[in-house]
Amino acid sequence: MRKQRLAGIEKEIGRILSEAIFLEVKNPNVKGHVSITNVKVTEDLKFADVYFSILPSIDGKEVSKEDILEGLNGLRGFFRKKVAEQMDIRFIPEIRVKLDDSIEHAIKITKLLNELKG
């Protein structure tokens, strides 16, 4: 499959899942605590690796990474169903949940640099 087509499918899956998390997910361990940072689909469309970033808590309620990951894994079937409802493709990929810690890593590096500066 052409790279442009895969990129379009990845972008659309990301949009569908972001919208579903924002509007439909009721799990308090997930809603408001995660954001999709990237989607990678295999060339045969069997799997879609969806990368989630954990957002800083705005309501003061901290949720552990394990609880968030468990909540996201519990929503995999729901995510796949949403993709199937909104996309017209022959194969609907199985959703695999991955945590993306790049934002946390960047914050750590920024703190270290700030400590060195002053």
Helix count equals: 4
Number of domains: 1
Largest sheet features: 3 strands, mixed
- Assembly annotation: single chain
**What is the average of the pLDDT values?**
90
Percent of residues in beta strands: 15-25%
Fold-level CATH name: GMP Synthetase, Chain A, domain 3
Q: Give the CATH class.
A: Alpha Beta
Shape: globular
**Percentage of helical residues?**
40-55%
In whole angstroms, the N-to-C terminal distance is: 52 Å
Please tell me how large the radius of gyration is. Answer: 16 Å
Task: Please characterize this protein's 3D structure.
49% of the residues lie in helices and 19% in strands. It has a single domain (3-117), classed as 2-Layer Sandwich (GMP Synthetase, Chain A, domain 3). It is globular, with a radius of gyration of 16 Å. The longest helix has 21 residues, at 3-23. With 118 residues, it is of the alpha+beta class. Strands 1-2-3 form a three-stranded mixed β-sheet, sandwiched between helices.
What is the compact description of this entry?
With 118 residues, the chain is an alpha+beta fold.
Per-chain topology:
Blueprint: H1 3-23, E1 34-41, E2 47-54, H2 65-74, H3 76-86, E3 94-99, H4 102-117
Parallel strand pairs: 2-3
Antiparallel strand pairs: 1-2
